[in-house]
Design a protein that fits this description.
With about 950 residues, this protein is of the alpha/beta class. The chain has five domains: about 1-285, Mannitol-specific EII, Chain A, CATH 3.40.930; about 325-500 and about 600-755 and about 765-815, no CATH class; about 525-580, no CATH class; about 830-845 and about 855-900, no CATH class; about 905-950. Helix content is about 50%, strand content about 10%. It is built from 35 helices and 15 strands. It has a seven-stranded mixed sheet with strand order 5-8-9-7-1-2-6, sandwiched between helices. Strand 3 (about 15-20) and strand 4 form a beta hairpin. Helix 9 crosses helix 10. The longest helix has about 45 residues, at about 905-950.
């Protein structure tokens, strides 16, 4: 919006405000743009704007390609309609064609050369017009545009304006010109819509084509009122609904109807309860145009039915979106029907799975997932080695991660899912090994047959579209499962950190005054044993001490006692450490805690830095995307500078089995009796249930509608390849892999995309996830490189830093879970509780009861996980679905719709009920119509007979 400014004998248009989504004003004293804020309009200005549209000129689809041409058309229409006299034509044109100065330009200054040019103008082209100035001003004819400083091409300043980045692509401008002149007795108003958007040079701050033009010139004394009218039309033009009306309007009445619809939604604030000087911050989320249209329709229905406040009623009747998982889980009833549909959805996106990876954000995702996978592989590999006597260890875990990650990302239906070893699989492996050890059964051969049976069972589930039952997994089950996995990550990270305090204890009893009493000595091996080990005769062992020392010096590998040995050398030569400070390592425990908590805190802070006010948007986005990598590098550097021997990440450097007596290929026959091959189908059923539930629940969480994935899902295809990988890993003696919930959620979070050209004041819009298959493939390749000693950096990463990453992954995956938000409501008074939508529609006591049921279920799962009964963990996940089914008896469908999701069968019953109601209405209407026909028929016959008689 530009306002007309007077400086002596000169006039120019100065930019005073602008709107992209919210209003920005030019600060009067600071000469800068204000902070974006919500436009607050007076109700009177909207009514005055309505009057201006009614009485002024409205030119729709005007053919104009330059500002002088458009001004000529506007003035000609005003003269033709009798709104201004012909004598004012040149004066109005002169004012409208004055130079436009934008905020990034300097204020106008008249040089002596400019003053000379204006005073030496030819008399034939100059008339004396009183336009509120003290002297005569040269007013040129419309045909002569020598004083028109507006070029049809954008200037260099416009092209270099950084504000252009904030404007969406294909945007069109609406220019509002407001000014006061004293040659008019009444306002000069014109609303123009061009037939084609045209770039009008310096009229706009940035080179954006103009489609709409609103002009308001009026007599002096009402400048504030004119300014409010200009703000009103500018606010209307950035409104989604009114802008549609402005584009599609056929006449003046359509524009007035659009203003009336806007007035229907306007909220009036009492002047005594609110200060108009306060600028309202832009909201984090604004209602969409579709939602407002539905509210308007409800409002119209309410007015038709004689109801008051239709919009409010519409808000009360608003229901959450139904529980829908898409067509991917439709039961086809055909052999491998779901698998075939998944393949058809996968094929068109194969190339884009790799082409979308050429982005700097992808580098951050690869590094982050690499660290998560390598840490997980080392952790679970070490635990597997302890549980299976190194039949499976860190090396097997590394190779399995590389193999499973590469195959699944290339051929799976949803490559954003990360495969990894999980806690339930680890527990099953431990129990299976103990069973084999106690019954003298070969562990690797039995495990191979369990893997083959489980693979066959997974393929049967794929062929029969068994993934259809995932539709019955609602938010209740999803949140319970994901919360459990998140709490496992958090607790394991804390346990490992606490364990470092036990391994490197703090010397609490240290007293500086008794520092002389602290010592650690290296004691030589027993001299008698030494003599025996060197085949000395028994007599030599009882000789004098001199002879014993001579024996030790001649035959013992232990160095002379006078030498000062290190701890490693003492153990190497068979010595023993004696003293109260031998196991004490100063500062390691506290330093490990600093690295652990510092990594977590810095990652959280840098992640939030993305939405802070410091630095440009791109810089903040870059820091937010690489927050985890930056935190790891910073605290690795701190650890390196301090030089303390903190526990480091140990990476295997040779490709060989952890256990020397096993090879890379497991043979299926020869070590166990024949009945083991058949009986292994029973434990395989438990593994299949575990794999199925873990894989599909993680897939449901990844494929949520909130993530806005565009390439579809592949539940059947994912399960197919997980089953195949189980068979392959069983033959190679590698761990079994399934979807890792927390790592997959973290992967999704690292690839989220936001709009770059967000309007000033508008929160960046979540656009979706960068869906590409290369992260897992790259991670697999990086893990292989790591094994082949090409990467040495992981060996310098302290383990406490990785524990901090684990803690962040667990805490970050809890964000956005409604269950966690409802738990926090227990600690909040009602007046301080957030304005959640479910709190508006469900009583608080019912919300607490629903949350309590979830807490009890989570506690039961946690107890089972920590005991020997953990082998039935997958069955208990199915138990969550049973509990959810029973909750239909405790809660109404209305409450469950807001707190959870309505089960599919309930939706079907509702649809059937709605159809029955409609059918009943139709039958009743048909009956009434037939009754009316029976009543009308005698009268028609009577009228016909009367006509015949006549």
């Amino acid at each position: 919006m530009d306002t007309l400014q007077h400086d002596g004998d000169d006039m120019e248009w100065k930019e005073s405000a602008r709107w992209v989504k919210f209003e920005e004003k030019v600060e009067e004293g600071g000469e800068r743009w204000s902070k974006p804020h919500v436009s607050t309009l007076t109700l009177h200005s909207l009514f005055e704007l309505r009057t201006c549209i009614q009485t002024g000129s409205v030119l729709l689809d005007l053919e104009g390609y330059s500002l002088p041409e458009i001004v000529d058309e506007i003035v000609d229409r005003q003269v033709a309609d009798g709104l201004i006299g012909p004598e004012l034509r040149e004066k109005v044109s002169f004012v409208l064609l004055r130079k436009h100065r934008h905020q990034h330009k300097k204020p106008m200054h008249r040089s002596l050369a400019d003053m000379g040019k204006s005073n030496n103008c030819p008399a034939s082209e100059c008339v004396c017009a009183s336009v509120g100035l003290r002297a005569c001003v040269c007013v040129y004819h419309a045909q002569s545009r020598s004083m028109n400083d507006i070029s049809d091409t954008p200037s260099t300043d416009q092209l270099k304006n950084k504000f252009m980045k904030k404007i969406p692509r294909d945007a069109e401008a609406s220019n509002v010109l407001i000014g006061e002149v004293d040659f008019l007795d009444k306002p000069f108003v014109a609303f123009v819509r061009l037939a084609q958007a045209t770039t009008l040079g310096g009229l706009t701050e940035v080179p954006v084509p103009t489609r709409f033009l609103f002009v308001l010139l009026g007599p002096h004394g009402k400048g504030k009122s004119y300014n409010e009218i200009g703000r009103a039309i500018a606010t209307l033009m950035v409104d989604d609904l009114f802008s549609d009306v402005a584009y599609k309007a056929r006449d003046r009445d359509d524009l007035i109807a659009g203003i009336d619809e806007f007035l229907d939604e306007v909220i009036v604030l009492p002047p005594g309860e609110w200060d108009p000087k306060i600028r309202i911050e832009p909201p984090k989320k604004v209602p969409s145009a579709d939602m407002r249209k539905s509210v308007l329709n409800l409002n119209e229905l309410g007015q038709v039915n004689g109801m008051v406040g239709g919009a409010g009623g519409g808000e009360d009747e608003e229901m959450p979106a139904p529980h829908e998982l898409g067509e991917e889980l439709q039961f086809t009833g055909r052999f491998c029907g779901g698998l075939w549909l998944d393949i058809k959805r996968k094929v068109p996106w194969i190339l884009s799975d790799f082409s979308q990876g050429f982005h700097i954000q992808s580098i951050s995702a690869v590094l982050f997932i690499y660290l998560g996978c390598i840490t997980n592989a080392i952790t679970f590999g070490g635990l597997l080695g302890d549980a299976t006597d190194n039949y499976q260890g860190v090396m097997e875990s590394f190779l399995g991660t590389a193999l499973a990650g590469t195959v699944f990302c290339l051929l799976g239906g949803q490559p954003l899912i990360i495969l990894s070893s999980t806690g339930p699989i680890l527990i099953f492996e431990k129990l299976l090994y103990e069973f084999c050890k106690s019954n003298t059964i070969d562990y690797m051969e039995l495990r191979l047959w369990i893997g083959l049976h489980s693979c066959l069972q997974c393929l049967i589930l794929v062929a029969t579209d068994a993934s259809y039952i995932i539709k019955y997994i609602t938010r209740f089950t999803e949140e319970g499962f994901s919360s459990l996995i998140s709490f496992i990550f958090i607790s394991d990270a804390i346990k490992k950190m606490v364990g470092s305090f036990k391994y490197y204890p703090i010397n609490r009893g240290f007293k500086p005054d008794y520092v002389t009493s602290y010592k650690c000595e290296c004691i030589a091996p027993d001299q008698a044993l030494c003599c025996l080990s060197t085949s000395m005769s028994a007599l030599l062992c009882i000789l004098s001490s001199l002879v014993i020392l001579l024996c030790l010096s001649l035959f013992s590998p232990f160095p002379p006692l006078s030498l000062q040995l290190s701890k490693k050398e003492c153990v190497k030569y068979g010595g023993a450490l004696l003293g109260n400070t031998c196991k004490y390592v100063p500062d390691l425990a506290l330093m490990s805690f600093i690295l652990f908590f510092g990594t977590y805190s810095m990652t959280v802070s840098l992640k939030k830095f993305k939405t802070s006010r410091y630095f440009p948007t791109k810089c903040r986005s870059l820091i937010g995307d690489f927050s985890i990598i930056i935190s790891i590098l910073v605290f690795c550097g701190i650890d390196y500078l301090l030089g303390l021997e903190t526990p480091k990440l140990h990476v295997p450097t040779e490709i060989k089995p952890t256990r020397p007596d096993r090879g890379w290929l497991v043979m299926p026959f020869g070590k166990n009796p024949w009945w083991v091959y058949v009986a292994s189908a029973v434990p395989a059923l438990l593994v299949t249930i575990l794999i199925f539930m873990d894989q599909q629940i993680s897939a449901v969480i990844v494929n949520r509608k909130e993530n806005k994935l565009k390439k579809g899902c592949g539940y059947h295809l994912d399960l197919f390849w997980v089953g195949i990988l189980m068979a392959v890993c069983s033959f190679l003696g590698l761990p079994w892999y399934v979807a890792a919930t927390v790592i997959s959620i973290a992967h999704i979070d690292s690839l989220k995309m936001e709009s770059e050209s967000s309007a000033p004041g508008e929160q960046p819009q979540f656009l979706g996830v960068r869906e590409w298959a290369s992260p897992s493939h790259a991670v697999g390749g990086v893990v292989e490189d790591c094994v082949n000693r090409y990467i040495v950096f992981p060996q310098y990463i302290p383990m406490p830093v990785l524990y901090g990453v684990f803690l962040y992954m667990g805490v970050a995956s809890l964000a956005g879970i409604q269950f966690w938000e409802r738990i926090k409501l227990y600690l909040m008074p009602a007046k301080h509780q957030p304005d959640f939508s479910f709190l508006r529609h469900v009583p608080l006591r019912r919300v607490h009861l629903f949350t309590l049921v979830q807490i009890i279920c989570l506690a039961v799962l946690w107890i089972l996980k920590s005991t020997v009964a953990a082998i039935i963990f997958p069955v208990m996940i199915l138990g969550l679905m049973v509990v959810r089914k029973m909750m239909d008896l405790m809660f109404s469908q209305h409450d469950l719709a807001w707190l959870d999701d309505i089960l599919p069968e309930k939706d079907k019953k509702k649809e059937k009920g709605g159809k029955k109601k409609k059918d009943n209405k139709k039958t009743k209407a048909a009956e009434t119509e037939s009754d009316e026909e029976h009543l009308i028929a005698p009268f028609t016959v009577y009228s016909v007979s009367c006509a015949y008689n006549e």
